[in-house]
Amino acid sequence: MKLFDVYPLFDVNIVKGKGCKVWDDKGNEYLDLYGGHAVISIGHCHPHYIDKVSSQLNNLGFYSNSVINGLQQELAVRLGRISGCDDYQLFLINSGAEANENALKLASFTNGRTRVLSAEKAFHGRTSLAVEATANPNIIAPINANGHVTYLPLNDLEAWRKELAKGDVCACIIECIQGVGGIRMVTEEFATGLAQACKDYGTVLICDEIQCGYGRSGKFFAHQWLGIRPDIITVAKGIANGFPMGAVLISPDFAPKYGQLGTTFGGNHLACAAALAVIDVMENENLVENARQTGTYLMERLKELQQTGHHITDIRGRGLMIGIELDIPHKPIRERLVYNQRMFTGCSGTNLLRLLPPLCFTREMADEFIVKLSQELKH
């Protein structure tokens, strides 16, 4: 058997990680500004994380959701406290796409509607309704194209209000900072106006915080920069630092019913131990504030580099979620950063480098990146 070939790969085999560094099987060291696609929140192989996950595995890795799991209850309390969402309810699953599926399902259970509003360039996952809410026809199979979703321009409040006024919209789902869409920022005016319009028309507002949440923006959730309170918040990626996990944070306005949602693996003991370890490290090492301060510094350095005139046309983002728009394709730049400079970055579209490093990223690392990016942009 061979692998189903759907991923374009760098010719690099990463076998080890520590903090913001990774190593390949030849012993080469790389600076990781990609974080496994924003998954590595507290750094690779953090000793506290290893200890907590190992200890839990020595006790119990898994049992079903038919019994009390005290780790789930502890995680709900801790996550509520660190995020400022104490009064929300927590449903645990395995991935970001699954989080969005359950969020949209819950919205439809609540108001009985079937239409969803999503933003142009949005990415919400690759499963049934999540992929339909993703504005990329190349990944929507015919079986998923069921006409539930209307795509609208981000930040065009009047366009969203016009659709909401039809009275048939189940949910609006937005990323407050679009990731795959190119680090596109939701404005405060749009966010507050949309939240009010959703209330006016009985529509559920879902904030997809899978990539932009969990401290990455310099606040725990990106929507907290915008002064809104979503009905439902979805998270994954950084929640367990690489252990497969996702979650739905559900406002107290929703009443749960037995059997309404369910999962086999979601919220298992090992996943909860990993997620609790992440919160420990985020609190003890002040990583959300570090993301804000280091991200601000890195964006300032990038804007200085932009003034040199070498291919950078725009810098945007918040915290450690940064987009570098170029007037040339990103592909050769990314390849040279990997093979010449030993640095991993992300990308979006044709011309955008995307930076998603672990939240323990430092100013010294930012300076190192600026030097090496500058070298490659001069080619």
TrEMBL record:
Superkingdom of source: Bacteria
Q: Which InterPro entries match?
A: Aminotrans_3 (IPR005814), Aminotrans_3_PPA_site (IPR049704), Class-III_PLP-dep_AT (IPR050103), PyrdxlP-dep_Trfase (IPR015424), PyrdxlP-dep_Trfase_major (IPR015421), PyrdxlP-dep_Trfase_small (IPR015422)
The alphabetical list of record keywords is: Aminotransferase, Pyridoxal phosphate, Transferase
Keyword Transferase in the entry? The reply is yes
Q: Does the keyword RNA-binding apply?
A: no
Q: Quote the SUPFAM superfamilies the UniProt record gives.
A: PLP-dependent transferases (SSF53383)
Q: Which cofactor does it need?
A: pyridoxal 5'-phosphate
List GO molecular-function terms, semicolon-separated.
transaminase activity
Q: Which family does it belong to?
A: Belongs to the class-III pyridoxal-phosphate-dependent aminotransferase family.
- Please state what the protein is called: Aminotransferase class III-fold pyridoxal phosphate-dependent enzyme
Q: Which organism's genome codes for this protein?
A: Xylanibacter muris
